[in-house]
Amino acid sequence: MLKTKFETLRDIIKKEIVSGKYLPGMMLPTEGEFQKTYGVNHSTINKAVSSLSTEGFIKTKQRNGSIVLPVKKRRIAARLGVYVMKSSGHVFDRLNAEIQNVLQRNFYFPLLINLDYIEDDKNIDWLKEHLDEAIDSFPEFIIVDGQAGFTFDLLQKRHLEVQNLIFVNRFEFVTDIPSIKLLSDYEHGGYMAVKHLLDSGCRKPLIVLGSRKALCNNINISYLKIKGAKRAWSERGFDPASLVFLSMEDNDFLRELKDAFGGESPHDGIFSDSDFVAYKSLTALERMKIMHGYDYKLVGYFDTPWARETASPFDSISINQTGIALKLHEIISERNYEKRIWTIRPELKKYAQTI
After folding, report:
1. Which of 12, 105, 260, 272 could form a disulfide with 278 if both were Cys (CB 3.0 to 4.6 A apart)?
2. In sequence order, which residues have a C-beta less than 8 Å from that of residue 188 and are 6 or more positions away?
3. Which CATH class is domain 5-73?
4. Crossing angle for the helix pair 42-55 and 5-18, to the nearest 10 degrees
5. 186-318, superfamily in CATH?
6. Neighbours of 175 (CB within 10 A)
7. Which pTM value belongs to this model?
8. How do residues 331-344 score in pLDDT, each as one tens digit?
């Protein structure tokens, strides 16, 4: 549907407000300036300004012009911040909750698009439709958990129309997109995990992955964890190529796991790229009478109940959800939308019982 002249002018001004060209407290151009810039008449300008005033973007003072209002003065529908995320059960639920809290604290109404529903082409169309609608609603920002399953091409096509694009947690895409990136430092997380094992007395750690695909995909977060793990190993004077990797996808995974902890030179530590994989390894070894805390040490990733609430708790690396949320709050509250990369240091969470 074609927009009227006043709707077109209203949307232009709205974009300039949410992009930060006109900040809270600033005056909009005068009617004469709008006429000169856009070639519109008094009636069109009056309708556009009246609409913006109704939505809470501006306050018009007779004879004094229009002043831009802070976000909290806008109608809820106009205080829009879009968050495209993946809930993934225990893994990112806390991150999602903290980000939604940040949006609400800054008076934004969070429009949530959950990528857990995106499993086939039909749902891809659903995502495209909802993203298009979100972009057409002039959100001040769109926040995306940049995981590999997200269809980045949808944003590539329209990223110039997104005022402020913010990727949080990860960015698993080959082609860069102009944006703010607020990323957990997965490489340093892998480094911390293996360093912790070595500092705890382990001399032969084993890396257990959910999938071997991580070994060849240099944008995948598991690849970054492995890169960090190799760095910690090489700092102790060992050849990074000497690290042994197993994957739960291997046909002979259980036999390989048993062999790794048997023989004359058994492994004495495990770093897994997720708590779920770590827990599966722990339970498999228990059935073989190889006990966590006695025969080996274990570090997982993501700080989930799999690590904390099992009968034999193990240490885990947290992506530092609070750190991500605090930096996001700083960016949004200060409206500092400079396109750059922020890296957030992970945290080591110690749950293993001392023997």
Report:
1. 272
2. 228, 343, 345, 346
3. mainly alpha
4. 50
5. Response regulator (3.40.50.2300)
6. 7
7. 0.83
8. 998 888 889 999 99
